[in-house]
């Protein structure tokens, strides 16, 4: 069964430092996608970055990068040079991509990131 | 292009009432999913619609239902509201390729 585990319920980081948010996953499907979403206090879920299971390189989007370690089933989000506006809840999510699979994404419990000035 | 639009943004209902929430996906997206988010349970999958058909359903009672129209717009309905139904309801649309889901801003439902 699909499962996403985020072991850090909360983190405090000094502004301008790099941040790593942990995510491990479990699936028996060889084809899957991994996502990170940011949810500020307003509630909207903001898509940050995507990594496909067959992608050869780690995904990067601006200050966001995904440290994908397939053998360890790990998909950590790295935020470089953190900013005050990065304070939010962050969710790791997974979607199985086999054509005949139920199409849904499952989420981890989230990590609440606090950036300190 | 326009994002996923959910209406209304906020809603207050009393126990026993029913409620209908609306979601307009991104143009061209045919898959629409609904999620319930509460502080205790986190994000839980409700159901997914594709081409007007419910393809997948989460573990929620029958009071929760939904539908999708030919233009891909979707509605979800909760009947006989309970206090525990108070939550943020998020809708997401997807083109059903390898890409991600785009979420709306959500409807915050409060049941009193």
Architecture overview:
The complex is a heterodimer of chains A (117) and B (112). Chain A is built from no helices and twelve strands. With 117 residues, chain A is mainly beta. In chain A, strands 2, 5, 6, 10, 11 and 12 form a six-stranded mixed β-sheet that branches. Chain A has a four-stranded antiparallel β-sheet with strand order 3-9-8-7, with no helix packed on it. In chain A, strands 1-4 form a two-stranded antiparallel sheet. Chain B has 112 residues and is mainly beta. Chain B has no helices and eleven strands. Chain B has strands spanning 5-7, 10-13, 19-24, 31-38, 42-50, 53-57, 64-68, 74-78, 87-94, 102-103, 107-111. In chain B, strand 4 (31-38) and strand 5 (42-50) form a beta hairpin. Chain B is globular and about 35 Å long. At the A-B interface, strand 5, strand 6 and strand 11 of A face strand 4, strand 5, strand 9 and strand 10 of B.
Helices and strands in order:
The complex is a heterodimer of chains A (117) and B (112).
Chain A (H helix, E strand, L loop, with lengths): L2 E3 L4 E5 L4 E3 L2 E3 L5 E8 L6 E7 L7 E2 L2 E6 L4 E6 L8 E9 L8 E3 L3 E6 L1
Parallel strand pairs in A: 2-12
Antiparallel strand pairs in A: 1-4, 3-9, 5-6, 5-10, 7-8, 8-9, 10-11, 10-12
Chain B lengths: L4 E3 L2 E4 L5 E6 L6 E8 L3 E9 L2 E5 L6 E5 L5 E5 L8 E8 L7 E2 L3 E5 L1
Parallel strand pairs in B: 2-11
Antiparallel strand pairs in B: 1-3, 3-8, 4-5, 4-9, 5-6, 7-8, 9-10, 9-11
Shape of chain B: globular
| Spatial extent as radius of gyration of chain A | 14 Å
Q: Please count the helical segments of chain A.
A: 0
Helix content of chain B: under 10%
Keywords:
A: mainly beta, four-stranded antiparallel sheet, B: 112 residues, mainly beta, seven-stranded mixed sheet, 54% strand
Short description:
With 117 residues, chain A is mainly beta. Chain A has no helices and twelve strands.
